[in-house]
Every structure is written in structure tokens, then in C-alpha cells.
Amino acid sequence: MPKKQGASRRSFLAGSATGLSSAWLVSQWPAILAAQEHAQKVARSSKPGKLGFFSAEQAAEVESVAAQIVPTDDTPGAREAGCLYFIDSALTTFDVKKQSVYTQGLKVLQAKTAELFPSGGKFSALTPAQQIQVLKAIEKTPFFTQVRVHTITGLLANPEYGGNQGKVGWNLIGFEGKFNYAPPFGYYDGESNKLTAKRG
Amino acid sequence: MTKFSPNTQVDFVVVGSGVSGGIMAKELTAAGFQVVILEQGDYLREKDFEYDQLKRTSHSSLLSDEANPVTFRQTDQEKATLSNGFRYGRCVGGGTVHYSGSSWRHHESDFHERSLLGPVSGTGFDDWPVTYAELEPYYTKVEWEIGYSGLGGASPFESPRSKPYPLPPMPNKSSGVLMERAAKKLGYHAVPVPVAMLSQAYRGRSACIHCGYCSGFGCKVGAKSSALVSVIPIVERSNKCELRPNSFVREISVDSAGRVTGAVYFDANRKEVFQKAKAVIVCGNGLGSPRLLLMSKSSRFPDGLANSNGVVGKYFLPGCGVSAHGMMDHELNEYKSVTTTRAIEDFYNSDPKRGYYGGGRIDARGNSTPIGFALGGMSPDTPTWGAEYKKALRNDFDRYLTMQGFLTCLPLETNNVTLDPDVKDAWGLPAIRVTYKDHPDDMKNKAFFRERALELIEAAGAVKKWADPVSEERAMGHTMGGCRMGNDPKTSVVDKFHRAHDVPNLYVVDGSSFVTSARNHPTCTISALAYRAADNIIKNAKNGSIKSPTGA
Questions:
Q1: pLDDT score for A40
Q2: Chain A residues with CB-CB distance to B449 below 8 A
Q3: I need a labelling partner for B143 at 20 to 30 A (CA). Which of A15, A23, A141, B132 fits?
Q4: Going along B255-341, which residue ranges are E strands?
Q5: Which of B99, B102, B174 to mutate to test the interface with A (most CBs of A within 10 A)?
Q6: Residue contact B57–A70, C-beta within 8 A
Q7: Backbone CA torsion sign across B18, B23, B26, B31
Q8: Better-predicted residue by pLDDT, A40 or B189
Q9: ipTM score for this prediction
Q10: CA B197, CA B194: separation in Å to the nearest integer?
Q11: Which residues of B touch A176 (CB under 8 A)?
């Protein structure tokens, strides 16, 4: 796990962010608001999945990386959540300054892919095991770190941002996302209530 | 809505609309005085608040942001660098809009610990000029007027109270049940956490719906008893107050006699405005208040207003914390309802047997937001991506238990708020520079509480437990000290009623008045001090002993 843990616990105390990278923290509110409005518009439009930043070719590569960060197994992963669309939307709204991380990073990805699998072609064309091997080799790069933060954030942010489509991210982790609950909230307070009731 | 011309000499300008500014304005207008509140941030309402974790992390609508930079260094030998760790509530209602609502009274001992324990050499450890007994009626007023839920007398360590809480405690959560279980096993006392939150409908406001969006968010139903929904609406109805949001005070002005004449601020269009007033009350929190005094330089006060003794900004107290974590067999679902419902106070007092000064409180909680958990809140042995990472995401989110310690930090002259000589904010004003390094006793106390927190996690029945190593504070939201109160004008900034020793018509009322950190839960005491200060200011204003400029 990255060294960020200690700092994030501290900021939890401060009542601010738990664990988002500081680079992410500095995004401006109006820009994020704009992104949300944009995402809502995309969600409403008849052509979801339209890309504003990536070419189709780049999109396939980025989506393949995201799909290794949160893979699809018997439950949906980053691909089904639409994390690609979250990233694409972020890069044209509140995270414009991260565009170069992607354009440069995709070159690094391509180079590492060619180095490890000379006859393999594109990253997205590799087998899952080969993809993991490439990503392990670039795990510490700013590109991978950024795709990881974006993918996970997109998976679990409000669906209007373009990721977490159909709330698959929230369903995956067991976050109900109802915004209105009544006790019992969890297993242990439920048990405790039952015991109290039994004792009368 | 009431309007005043800047040229009208109003009775009071209040700088800041957080809980202390809100209470001051409420009390002063009720007594018939004219008040102008100048608030840096926006005026947001319930409809503006969102269930949006992505925005929570930056939401400059509630907190200071890049436009209000803070720099940090540990000692004056270092060059301070930009820090994300010190932010303050920056909207109408201040920090009470986004805080978790945990709101404890100080204990009797907090006000005279130095007399009880003796001095701690090399520190500014001191008694407060106020006693618990003097403050008790105001604590009660806070709980009833602002709207608190809790269970008076539940803690065997609680100091005497004259009245119960107006509302019963919040329903217990799984973390609270586990705290009770652990405390029982270890011989401690788990007690309900008092919260500035409505467990039932109260005074026209609706009860909490347990949405879980407390810490870091504005409450969408007005159940969190922020200044925004408790005192500000009363101020607005008084017809005696003009609340000006987006008004950033850069200087408090004085005349040649050294009396405050009003405040200079930038309005929403960054136009400079001078508001005349008979007296000024600064309620800008532990960062903002010392900064404003330091920026208010004049020939009379070349080192900053009310700073003839050089104490302004010193003895800054960001509060200390430590935590331990564990994984339970079953789900806690801590993302629902308030942040925490049970705590222990068994190690509240400093115990000389431990060989250092320090104490604290530990509360139980868990994961509140999915994004925070998934990016940086998972157990240290969890892979950061891939199939195993996903498995942990799926299985662990709702099973984490955290024991969070809220601890003392010693007041040191070398820990302070100053003006950064290089970095400027978006208004061209010098940035806040925080210099802070933990006292060795603070570090020992953290190590002690880290062990207690791990014991509690184990006793709760966790299948796995871990804790970050003890570390020095480099970030904190509970800003206290900086304009400390005291009876001695040589060693404090304001007197026991928050009047500046140097300036007869200037008051500073907020967390900056704190002499010690207590156990790092400042809001209830800030609020009680504000009610008490207001009583005294009203008395003095009525008998003419607040000497305002030009004999007015």
C-alpha cells in the first residue's frame, strides 16, 4: 500500500478527505460542478459512451488498463462500471491538466508492451496475464498511479460522473447509496437490539 | 433584510459567521445592538449541499482552498511549504457546517490542569482564566439553544451538569456496540457521544435521517446543529444585523488613540470597503484570527493589532490524534448515520504515573466513504490493484472498525501562526504560515493511546488489527490557540472575557482563545465561551465601558 495511509488517517480527523491524493484534492469546485453537469448531460443524451478526449484507439488501451486495476470476474469491474467514460470526462473538465499524464503515459505503455512482447501488438490485444506483467513493470509510473486513482474514483463516485454506471461500484462493495437509513445499521447493533428485545 | 451603509457606525462588526460569530451576533442583536457580520465564504443552504464524495475532498464551497493557501513547517529553521493539511470552514456557519458534530464539554480539570499537575517545563502549559463552574450555565445554553443529543451523567468522568441534554443520544451503531463490548471486557466505560445533531425533531428542525453524510458535508435536512441552521436564522430575523457573505476582512483599523474604528474588507467584487463600527469582534478561528491581527499593522501596533507583547499567533494548538483499525467478521455499515456513537474517557486525565503530561478520549467508528476507503483506507497488507484488490474491496468495506484517539497537545511558544513572507493568497494578502512540532510528551501520549486503541480493537473481537506508526502532526482541522486568553497582559492576548488587553473595543472570541487543547474537541467549549463573552460585552456596552472611537 502506498505511504499515503498515515496522512489520510490524519486528514480523516481533520474532517476532510480520507485518502484522496493531494493532486486530486486541489481540483476546483466550479470545475467539478461543471464536470458533474457535463456528466449528467452525457447520461441524459441518447448517445452515452461518446468520448470527448480519447481517440477510439487510446480509449481501448486506457479501458484495458482500468480493467486490470478492477477486473471483471463473477461480478462487474471497471469496464462494466464505465470508468473509461469517467476518466474521459474528467480530462475534459476538472482534470484538464492531467491530459499530458495520459498522452505521455500511453506512449510508455506502448513502449513497455513492445519491449516485453515484441510480437504482441497493442496492450489491449495481450492476454490478461501478459497485461498484468506489463502493468507490474510500470506500476510506479505517474501514468499508472493516475489511472489507478481515476479508475477507483470513477468506480465509486456518484454515477452522474460517468463511472459507477448502474451503481455497480457501490453494489460491489456493499454501499447502499440510499442516503436515508433507519437502525439497525449493521450486524452488531442489530444483534444488540435483538438481545435487548429478548430481555424485555 | 437589514442593510447598513459602510459609513454608518454600527455597534459591532463581527468577523466570521461560524459558531462563535453566529452566537455573538445572535446575542448582541437580541440585546438591541446593530451588527454587521463579515464572512469570507459563501452563503449556502441545504439545497446547495450534495451527497457527493468526489466534491467533498475539494469542496471549496465549505472549506478554504487553493485561494487561501496555508504553508507549513516544523521549526523556524525551515522554509515553509504549501500544505493541504490546514483548512478551515469557509462559508456561513463556518466549520460547524462540515464537521462531524461530535461536541463534548470540557471537564472541570481542563481549566486548571497546571494547578493540578504542576508546570511542564519549556511549555506554556497554564490554567485558563475561566473555571468550569463559570462556564457550566453556558454549556447548558449551548446544548439547548444549538440543539444537542446526548446522555448526561452517562460518563462517570463527566463534570457536574445543571440540566440533561435536550434530546436523547443517537441510536447506537455497530461500532458503538463493539466499543461497549470491548470496554466491558477491559473494565472501561463506553459512553454515548454527545452530538450537535438532532436525534428527534427540535425547535422546528427535522431529525437526522442517518444518511451518513456528516463529516465533510453540509447537512441536507438541517439536522446537524450548525451555526447555519441554529443561530444564523435567529440573527436574520432580528432585523438588527446585516450578514455579508463573500466579504474578506484584510485589516481592522485603529485611530491614533489605539481604538478600533472598523474593518476593511474586500467585497464579492474584490472592491475594498471600510465598515465603521464602535467595536469589532473577531471570530475567525485559530488560523484566521491571529492572521487578521498580524495583518492589521499600524504605527500604533507595528507588529500587529493587540500584539504589543508579541504573543499573537503563539501557542497554536492543532490537536493530536492516533488511531488503530481492525476487521470484523460481520458488516458494521459505518457509512450510515453519524460518525461515532460511543467513546471512552477512562484515560482522559493526565496521569503522573505514566511519566509525562497527556490524556485523551477514544471513540469508535469505521469507513464512512467508499472512495476514501478504496484509495487510501484499506489495511496495509491489501494489494493496491488487481483481482485480490477487488476481492478486498468487495469483502472489507463494511467490516472495518477504527478506534480514534483525540489527544492533548502542549502549548508551545514555538508552535505558531505567522504571515508567510513569500506566499500570497488570491487577494494578494500574505498566506497563513503554520509552524508546528509535537512536544515529546505529545509523542509519548500518542504511543500510549495507540496501544489502548489496539487493545480495544482486539477486545472488540477483530479478526485482524493494525495501526499506523505514531507520527508527528502535519495536518489538523481543530485549530485552537493563537490568541490565548489570560489574566496577565504580558503573556496572553485577550482577558478572561475575550477583550484584547491592548485595545478596549476589540474582542477575539473563538478557538484561538484556548489556553490548552483539552482533548481536542473544541466546538462545545468555543460555543459556551461565546455565550459567556456575549453576556459580558452586552453588560459593558450598556454601561458604556466599551470605549469606542470619537466618544460614540
A1: 56
A2: none
A3: A15
A4: 260-266, 272-282, 320-327
A5: B174
A6: no
A7: negative
A8: B189
A9: 0.94
A10: 9
A11: 333, 336
pLDDT at A16: 33
State the angle between helix axes of A56-69 and A142-156 in degrees (0 to 180), rounded to the nearest 10.
80
pLDDT reported for residue A199: 73
User: What burial class does residue A117 get, using C-beta atoms within 10 Å of its C-beta: 0-12 exposed, 13-18 middle, 19+ buried?
Assistant: middle
Confidence of residue A66 (pLDDT cuts 50, 70, 90): very high
Q: Which residues of B touch A191 (CB under 8 A)?
A: 177
CA nearest to B368, candidates B478, B216, B476, B224: B216
Residue B378's nearest CA partner among B321, B326, B450, B323 is: B326
Mean pLDDT score, A24-30: 38
Contact: B55, A18; criterion CB under 8 Å: no
d(CA B200, CA B354): 42
Domain range annotation of chain B: 1-50+86-97+104-147+226-316+481-552
What residue in B sits closest to A150 (Cα-Cα)?
B375
Interface contact B61-A29, CB threshold 8 A: yes
How large a percentage of chain A has pLDDT more than 70?
75
Pairs of residues, one from chain A and one from chain B, whose beta carbons lie less than 8 Å apart: 245
Nearest CA of chain A to the CA of B60: how many Å? 6
- Cβ contact, residue pair A183, B376, below 8 Å: no
Q: Nearest CA of chain B to the CA of A183: how many Å? A: 7
**Domain at B1-50+86-97+104-147+226-316+481-552: CATH code:** 3.50.50.60
Q: Nearest CA to CA, how far is A59 from chain B (Å)?
A: 20
Whether B328 sits inside 8 A of A188 (CB atoms) is: yes
* β-strands B272-282, B10-15 pairing: parallel
- The DSSP H or E segment spanning B364 is strand B360-365
Q: What is the rounded distance in angstroms from the CA atom of residue A158 to the CA atom of residue A166?
A: 10
Name the residue facing A6 among B56, B213, B468 (closest C-beta). B468
| pLDDT given at position B376 | 86
- Residue B330: closest C-alpha in chain A: A187
Answer positive or negative: Cα dihedral of A135, A137, A140, A141. negative
Q: What's at B350, amino acid-wise?
A: S
Per the rule left: phi > 0, alpha: psi between -120 and 50, beta: everything else, A174 is: left
Chain B residues with CB inside 8 Å of A153's CB?
54, 371, 375
User: How many whole angstroms separate alpha carbon B467 and alpha carbon B481?
Assistant: 29
Low-confidence ranges of chain B (pLDDT < 70): 57-60, 550-552
Provide, as residue numbers in chain B, all residues whose Cβ is less than 8 Å from the Cβ of A174. Answer: 331, 333, 394, 397-398
Peptide bond into A184 cis (omega under 30): yes
Average pLDDT over residues A133-147: 98
The pLDDT assigned to A34 comes to 57
Please give the residue of chain A at the shortest CA–CA distance from B172.
A189
**What are the φ and ψ backbone dihedral angles of B458, each rounded to 5 degrees?**
-65, -45
Neighbours of B540 (CB within 10 A): 18
- Rounded to two decimals, the pTM is 0.92
Q: Which residue has the higher pLDDT, B397 or A9?
A: B397
Higher pLDDT among residues B115 and A18, named by residue: B115
